[in-house]
Write a structure and sequence with these properties.
- The complex is a heterodimer of chains A (195) and B (216).
- In chain A, the strands form four sheets. In chain A, strands 8-9-10-12-11 form a five-stranded mixed β-barrel.
- Chain A is an all-beta fold and 195 residues long.
- Helix content of chain A is 2%, strand content 43%.
- The relative contact order of chain A is 0.12.
- Chain A has one helix at 3-6; strands at residues 8-9, 14-17, 21-23, 27-29, 35-38, 42-47, 58-64, 77-85, 89-97, 100-111, 134-141, 148-151, 158-161, 171-172, 177-179, 186-188.
- Chain B has helices at residues 167-173, 180-188, 207-215, and strands at residues 17-18, 23-26, 36-37, 41-44, 47-50, 54-59, 63-67, 80-88, 92-96, 103-106, 126-133, 141-143, 155-156, 161-164, 191-196, 200-205.
- Chain B has three helices and 16 strands.
- The radius of gyration of chain B is 21 Å and the shape is globular.
- The longest helix of chain B is centred in the C-terminal third of the chain and has 9 residues, at 180-188.
- Chain B has 216 residues and is mainly β.
- The chains are: A mainly beta (195), B mainly beta (216).
- The A-B interface holds A 84-87, 125-126, 130-131, 165-166, 182-183, 185 and B 42-45, 104, 133, 135, 137-139, 141.
């Protein structure tokens, strides 16, 4: 048996004993509480415990071959495209999580009270977003079965890129206005302050 | 048949029939001015062109728009329309106003409206309402009050008879001075009439007043 094969684990394979290892990512503890099994196919890896904890055991992980696409988590900034604007919320398709593109479609909802930080009951959704706008938003929570809850209530969150009625990409002029370069018309959006 | 090419002189198009593609104004030849565009006109870089067939209108000092008459209605803000209740939800009524989508009438958009005295409209009730919000991506929003919050004749219309017309006929009935048809009818009958800019007209003959005139 060559050295390379020892590192590859397949689902179900016993990786060690719970007295010597902690079950990490890609592994699970058997119901009898003693064996640690792999749940993915991939490379077996040992991670030393953090230096200031009382834990002496190493953590065993299995790292899969396929890099999974990014998944939104609460607290991360995502880039999304607005699909529908309604009276009290806007729905958007999440396209990137931090700087990685997602492999499958996630839906997010920006509620009226999460559009901005001030005067949240006077928010007009139509003057904040339009369908087709690209927005930078933060994931608030996993939301319900249909969509993540997103928020644009910070200066650096909001519309990053939008098209005017005439079809040209607009230029931001303040945190509430964007201007079309070909017609000069000013349209209202909740604009992100991109530094 | 001679095909005319669109002329470059612009003043001549006002009050004339225009078709999509006609150029109303060439902005490169004009200095710093504010021009207000109404329905049916769009700005393409430095040219104002027509996107809807109709008659070009101009109102001083700077407002241009195209007036056209159709059976379908395009909702626009501050129009008074006649709607038919289609459904009642928790916080708004769904009302059909002959537009591309149903309109929402908030349950509290009435004079003195609170959660305790929500009106109970049955499906099929005819309402005289005002359009508050109308844009291309959302359902229009209506209200049964005027801008200051008073009831002002808005609300449900009982009895009478409702019929559909084109939007052009509805505008003609609402024009000032009073439309001659309404005056001629008024000489013979006593009636109440409500005209919706969405091409719906409701009329009720006041039978008691009519009987008084016939007898007295």
């Amino acid at each position: 048996m060559s050295a390379g094969e020892e590192n590859i684990a397949t689902p179900g394979e016993i990786l060690g004993d719970s007295s010597q290892f902690i079950a990490g990512k890609g592994t699970y503890l058997a119901p009898n509480g003693r064996n640690i099994h792999a749940s993915l196919t991939g490379q077996r890896r040992l991670v030393p415990p953090p230096p200031d904890s009382a834990e002496k055991r190493l953590t065993v992980e299995v790292v899969g071959h396929k890099t999974r696409g990014a998944v939104p988590e609460p607290g991360v900034v995502v880039i999304a495209r607005v699909t529908r604007v309604m009276a009290r919320m806007a729905s958007a398709d999440i396209m990137c999580v931090e700087s990685k593109a997602v492999k499958e479609k996630f839906t997010g909802i920006i509620r009226q009270q999460d559009v901005r930080a001030t005067e949240i009951d006077k928010v007009d959704m139509y003057q904040s977003f339009r369908p087709g706008d690209i927005v930078k938003a933060e994931v608030l929570s996993l939301g319900d079965a249909r969509a993540y809850y997103l928020s644009t209530a910070k200066n650096e969150l909001g519309v990053v890129s939008a098209q005017s009625i005439a079809g040209a990409t607009m230029v931001p002029i303040s945190w509430t206005d964007m201007q079309c370069p070909s017609t000069g018309q000013v349209e209202k959006r909740k604009v992100a302050k991109v530094l | 048949m001679e095909v005319e090419t669109s002329s470059s002189s612009t003043a001549s198009l006002v009050d004339k029939a225009v078709v999509p593609g006609d150029i109303v104004l060439d902005l490169t030849s004009m200095s710093d001015q504010t021009i207000r565009l109404g329905a049916g006109l769009r700005q393409y870089s430095d040219v104002l062109s027509v996107v809807k067939a109709g008659k070009l209108k101009f109102k001083k000092p700077n407002k241009y728009w195209v007036e056209s008459s159709q059976k379908r209605y395009a909702p626009s803000v501050e129009d008074t329309v006649l709607g038919i209740v289609v459904d009642a939800r928790a916080d708004n009524f769904l009302v059909d106003i002959k537009g591309p989508t149903l309109a929402f009438l908030p349950v509290l958009a009435f004079e003195g409206g609170t959660r305790r005295n929500i009106p109970k409209f049955e499906i099929g009730t005819l309402l005289y309402v005002r359009v508050v919000k109308a844009n291309s991506c959302m359902n229009p929003e209506l209200s049964c009050t005027d801008a200051s919050g008073k009831a002002a004749e808005f609300g449900s219309l009982k009895e009478g008879y409702m019929f559909d017309t084109s939007t052009g006929l509805a505008r003609m009935l609402l024009s000032s001075p009073t439309c001659p048809i309404l005056e001629a009818l008024g000489r013979k009958l006593s009636y109440e009439i409500a005209v919706g800019l969405n091409g719906r007209v409701w009329q009720k003959i006041l039978v008691e007043k009519l009987m008084q005139r016939v007898q007295g």
